[in-house]
Amino acid sequence: MHRRDLLKALAAAPLALSAAPRQASGGKARLRSALCAYSFREALGSGKLSYEDLVDIAVKNDVDGLDLTVYWFPQEGLNKFLTSLRRKAYLAAVELPSIAIRSDMCRKSANDQQKEAAWLQHWVDVADRLGASHIRVFGGRVPEGASEDEAAGWVGEILKRAADYAGSKGVILGLENHGGITLYADRIIQIVEAVDHPFVGINLDTGNFRTKPYEQMERCVPYAVNSQFKVQIHHEDGGREPSDWERIVKMFAAAGYKGYMALEYEASEDPFTAVPRHLASIRELTRKYSG
User: Fold this and answer.
1) Is the pLDDT of residue 235 over 90?
2) pLDDT band at 27 (very low <50, low <70, confident <90, very high)
3) Which CATH number does the domain housing residue 219 bear?
């Protein structure tokens, strides 16, 4: 093949992929442990802890990867920050598979939709600089006066625009079950299936469903491109109870999930004490149920 033909083939490669949303491929599961930066939100926000310190925490706790919530990334000197963090992680053999951002895609006007798509594209570039292949995104809340069906359509439209750009960089957008338009499994699956893009899936947060959480999680697992594990699950009456991680990991393993299971610690105990203990549990489960 001539160089010119090769370049043409590479340019067309994203379009040649299956248009279906990623579903677990079956067979043996391949599970990897990770830590969400959000677990140390107070320390990161105060400057007590840096993102490079998280790399050291991952090494100390024998964690495969870091899921980097971007809320405390610097506004100035971002490229220098990303370069240094990527170098630090690589030399420590810690993977940076995912970043997590805020977004609101329940946008009615074409202008607002374009702005939101541009916002997502900005973070695609950041993920690309870090070598991350996944971004967690939020759907947002249904605006007053709008129907859920309308809002779901707006979310899908923005995801389609952003996913084309993300796909050109090899970055997958994971729509999280984060309340609002994504409060229920059926709705988030409907959005992902309607988008029908190889670079869009579900970022499955195990602590965010309020009704029949295990049943809703199980419906989403086949579409999961990343997962975040909470130590508690919620009930519709506002109550909470410890999350049954073994039951959840079995769901992922049965579906042949291949990906990360990131601890996102939000309970009241000091994370510097609690996180190592919970990471040990995640490590044990990923190794137990990986093929």
Assistant:
1) no
2) confident
3) 3.20.20.150
Cβ count within 10 A of residue 76:
6
Question: For residues 275, 286, 207 and 85, what is the CA-based torsion angle, rounded to 10 degrees?
Answer: 60
User: H helices within 77-236, ranges in order?
Assistant: 78-91, 110-130, 148-169, 185-195, 213-220
Tokens of 101: 């951002």
The answer as to whether 12 is a domain residue is no
Between CA 3 and CA 283 the distance in angstroms is 45
**What is the SS3 assignment for 190?**
helix
Average of per-residue pLDDT values in the chain: 92
**3 domain residue, yes or no:** no
CA–CA gap between residue 54 and residue 65 (Å, rounded): 10
The count of domains in the chain is: 1
- Specify the pTM: 0.92
How far, CA to CA in Å, does 38 sit from each of 61, 68, 119, 127, 172? 17, 8, 21, 17, 20
CA 200 to CA 179: how far, in whole Å?
A: 18
